[in-house]
Write a structure and sequence with these properties.
Number of domains: 1
Largest sheet: 5 strands, mixed
Number of strands: 8
Helix content: 25-40%
Distance between the termini: 92 Å
Radius of gyration: 23 Å
Order of helices and strands: HEEEEHEEEEH
CATH class: Alpha Beta
Shape: elongated
Strand content: 25-35%
Strand order of the largest sheet: 5-2-6-7-8
CATH superfamily: ABC-type transport auxiliary lipoprotein component
CATH architecture: 3-Layer(aba) Sandwich
Length: 196
């Protein structure tokens, strides 16, 4: 009997220390609706290189960022993007610019092809605002000549979209906001490129 009691006490004390397993990580893709517009001729003749967008702080990480009710930024612990926002947006910009026929070719720097034009950008906001039931995006985009640095277009785009509660719905709303930004950028680039 004496031998059984210590074993039972040890089992009870270990059970008391056990905690439930943490939730599983959830990974979210940034889903973009590409603009339907296709130009009859490229407005940027030659090769357009799309650089990875700059970002800092929480926006340079994979966890979904949100604005707390007091205005401070925080991040979800278990809800993550499938990649960092800068890379996802770079890939979607490449697809959208190719689909629109903005240039003869649209590439990324890893191909090491000498470009005629370079697209650079910076993510300033890319966050959920649960207390307001919306998301907010602010991205600065610029296209310059690789030959002489002439500025073709530089613009900062803001978009807000309503979002239902929960990271899944909020990630989908961020995709809609980013789609709006990309569509407006392509329309502006189509007009500006014709003047370059």
């Amino acid at each position: 009997m004496k031998r059984v009691f210590p074993s039972a006490a040890l089992a009870l004390s270990l059970a008391a220390c056990a905690q439930p397993a943490p939730p599983r990580d959830s990974f979210h893709r940034l889903e973009i609706v590409l603009p339907a517009r296709h130009l009859s001729a490229p407005v940027l003749p030659g090769i357009l290189e799309v650089s990875r967008l700059d970002s800092e702080g929480l926006l340079a990480e994979r966890p979904l960022a949100y604005q707390d009710s007091d205005g401070s930024l925080a991040r979800y612990r278990y809800d993550l993007w499938s990649d960092v926002p800068a890379v996802m947006l770079q890939e979607h910009l490449v697809d959208a610019l190719r689909g629109a026929g903005i240039a003869d070719a649209v590439v990324t720097p890893d191909l090491r092809v000498p470009p005629h034009w370079v697209l650079r950008g910076r993510i300033k906001r890319f966050e959920l605002i649960p207390s307001a039931g919306k998301v907010a995006v602010r991205i600065r985009l610029a296209v310059v000549s690789a030959r002489d640095g002439t500025l073709v277009l530089q613009e900062t785009y803001d978009a807000e979209m309503p979002a239902a509660a929960g990271p899944q719905a909020e990630a989908a709303a961020l995709g809609r906001a980013a789609s709006d930004v990309i569509a407006r950028f392509i329309a502006d680039l189509g007009r500006a490129g014709g003047r370059s």
